[in-house]
Amino acid sequence: MSVVSSGPATVTVPPAEIVPMNDTKSDKMKNDLSAAEVADPVDVEEGNLKGTKPGVIVDAVWGEIDEDGPNYRSLGWIKAAVLQVKLQMGLGILGLPAVFDTMGFVPGILIILAVFVICTWSDYVLGQFKRRHPEVYTLADAAYLIFGPVGREIVAVAYLIQQIATGGAAFLSMTVAFNTITSHATCSVVWGVVSMCIVAAMASIQTLGKISWLGWVGITSIMAAIITLMAGVGVSDRPSLAPSGDYTLEVLAVGHPSFVDAINAVCVVIFAYCAGPNFLNIIGEMREQGDYTKSILVSQGSVTVIYLIVASVVYHFVGQYIASPALGSAGLIFKKVCYGLALPGLAVGGTLFLHVSAKFIFVRSLRNSRHLSKNTPVHYIVWFSCVAGVCLIAFVIAEAIPFFNDLLSLIGALFATLMCIQLETYMWLWDNWHMPRTVRWKSLVVMNVVFHFLGWFCMVAGTYGSVVTINNKFKSGEFGSSFSCADNS
């Protein structure tokens, strides 16, 4: 066995997990981020510092965890996998049939599989990095360890914008659902406020262990809506967006998109896998952090199979007449039923993204303070303020960019690539650069470098494509305007 220094104690890690690290930066990180000084002897297991006091755990992030505060290390691997599935499978899956419409069957399937491989590797790297550096709780902490204070703040801002913007996309999809179900009974902005209040109430639940049951609700809701959608498009006489009278359904094996349309489609797929940065929060609240890899393989494999089935079936029956989001593709009655079934899942998706956004700010605000894991007035004031703040910003984003697929593409290009690909591949290189130059090591270096630069290409090209498309839609006036009361269903 070997040991890696971790805060005020040592963490025993199997030899296969050991990698050389930058000792100076690691020591600085430990001094800045260690949550508590432990004077008594401790035993270490999977990132926990188990103190000599009965029932007390001293965690490298949360400090002392006991019965006087929330238990931030209570998440089992099955619940973790459920949260990972729900974080991934929500808004993104509603944009995938349109990707097939743009790219065609074969390129669409290949793109989903390619992004699955890249993002699953990145998610695995996050787990390994967390176990080697227990003091890391978010990507911003990892960036501080690697790049210093400036890097931490840049990544923190990008991370928060991505998570909050994704919460905004959830609000936008919820307003579409409310308008569809009620036949536009009131102003769309009002439905946006209602959506914000519902999500804020659920996001204020303090720990992922207590919120994990919402993952089951969300998965059940989205799956019920998707199964109904697939049944609906299969039995409907015509897609809801097909013109009256005769029409021709186009289902292409290989599409012929413009560069802008193609890169936007790729970025929608990246968005569908963009929950990876939140997995650091999940592993940080797991009881046994060694089970993280198991949860990732289960969740990512399940999500990818579902993505391929849903996108293929819906595109086969609807062709070019795909609604955005896709739940509106099967006709008016099925559209109402689908959105009614999906509404709880859409709310849970927004809840999870905004919960981890608020938790990020909360931990940054109270770290190294007894208020972080104790039920004090300061603890509650800061927590509820963080939840209210991120929900309000998400609402503004949803109302400012009212185009569903284009909002997904913009988030995927500008933020998800950086958060889900470039940072993780660089983290692996930083942690493993001084390993022995074996064939396996060289192969992994080449793979990470290729993934890294693919991420930069998608970021630059995808942002350009998204901005061009959104600008054109605003100019045309065809799709409404910001903060509009118009029916967006």
From TrEMBL:
It holds the Pfam family Aa_trans. Keywords: Membrane, Transmembrane, Transmembrane helix. It is a multi-pass membrane protein. The keyword Nuclease does not apply. GO terms for cellular component: membrane. InterPro entries: AA_transpt_TM. Its main location: membrane. It is found in: Membrane. The keyword Transmembrane applies. The chain crosses the membrane at residues 105-126, 138-161, 181-201, 213-235, 262-284, 296-318, 338-357, 378-401, 407-429, 441-464. GO terms for molecular function: L-amino acid transmembrane transporter activity. Residues 75-467 form the Amino acid transporter transmembrane domain. Belongs to the amino acid/polyamine transporter 2 family. This is Amino acid transporter transmembrane domain-containing protein. It comes from Kwoniella heveanensis BCC8398.
